[in-house]
């Protein structure tokens, strides 16, 4: 897949709730995911598709998502793209609703996402 095809597929999957299918289709098995701050029990960085899947499961278990949007992709050179995400969610443990915006930067090599970094 080309960079544009990967980027378009990731955004479409995010818009249609197919994030787990994206992991199987678009990510290298040893992909790395980096958050801007520590996540409880995971730190800032997880390695491997299964660890990224675990991060998704943690999010889904701890937050009720009311709406999301994905703006982009924004291509950068031959190996990177960005996506702007907006999320309206409730923290289940505190009952607090919040809105957030984050930038995801995705690095691609050999037709697969090898690294994702989130800024918020």
List the helices and strands and how they pair.
Blueprint: H1 3-15, H2 19-26, E1 27-39, E2 43-47, H3 49-62, E3 63-76, E4 80-91, E5 96-109, E6 112-119
Parallel strand pairs: 1-6
Antiparallel strand pairs: 1-2, 3-4, 4-5, 5-6
Helix pairs in contact: 1-2
Explain the overall architecture:
It is a single chain. With 120 residues, the chain is an alpha+beta fold. It contains 3 helices and 6 strands. The protein has one domain: Nuclear Transport Factor 2, Chain: A, CATH 3.10.450. Helix 1 runs antiparallel to helix 2. Strands 2-1-6-5-4-3 form a 6-stranded mixed beta sheet. The longest helix has 14 residues.
Number of domains: 1
- Give me the Rg, rounded: 14 Å
Which CATH class? Alpha Beta
- CATH-assigned fold name: Nuclear Transport Factor 2, Chain: A
Helix and strand succession?
HHEEHEEEE
| Percentage of residues in helical conformation | 25-40%
């Amino acid at each position: 897949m080309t960079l544009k095809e990967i980027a378009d597929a990731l955004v479409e999957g995010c818009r249609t709730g197919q994030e787990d299918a994206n992991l199987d289709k678009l990510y290298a098995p040893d992909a790395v995911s980096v958050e801007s701050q520590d996540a409880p029990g995971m730190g800032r960085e997880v390695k491997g598709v299964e660890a990224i899947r675990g991060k998704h499961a943690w999010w889904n278990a701890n937050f009720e998502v009311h709406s999301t949007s994905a703006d982009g992709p924004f291509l950068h050179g031959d190996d990177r793209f960005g996506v702007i995400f907006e999320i309206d969610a409730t923290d289940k443990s505190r009952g607090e609703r919040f809105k957030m915006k984050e930038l995801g930067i995705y690095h691609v090599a050999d037709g697969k996402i090898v690294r994702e970094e989130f800024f918020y």
